[in-house]
Design brief:
Blueprint lengths: L3 H20 L9 E3 L2 E3 L15 E4 L4 E4 L10 H9 L8
Antiparallel strand pairs: 1-2, 3-4
Length: 94
């Protein structure tokens, strides 16, 4: 079930990814955004179609992490699920 909170998280995450992509010209591997003293790219799972329908949230205390549940949610496309699992694009919710 998609909740207001999960919709907000998806929109916020997509907004961050869109801002990152807009700030970079060229390929993602050529342009990296600096975070502190290290360089970083957006999370790989953002490139998976309909990733939001396949994920859950894990309470980390003062924040929530996006994670992959142990079983595929009913509304998650099989291709997206397989890609997220095979490519290890997201941590599990254990």
């Amino acid at each position: 079930m998609v909740t207001r909170k999960s919709r907000w998280l998806a929109v916020a995450t997509m907004g961050i990814a869109a801002a990152f992509l807009q700030a970079c010209s060229g390929s993602a591997t050529e342009n990296k955004a600096e975070v502190g003293s290290q360089q970083a790219l957006p999370p790989a799972y953002l490139s998976v179609s309909q990733w939001q329908q396949c994920t859950s949230e894990k309470d980390m205390g003062s924040w929530k992490s996006v994670c992959l549940p142990q079983t595929k949610p009913a509304n998650c496309p099989a291709k997206s699920w397989d890609t997220l699992q095979q490519d290890k694009k997201m941590p599990g919710c254990q």
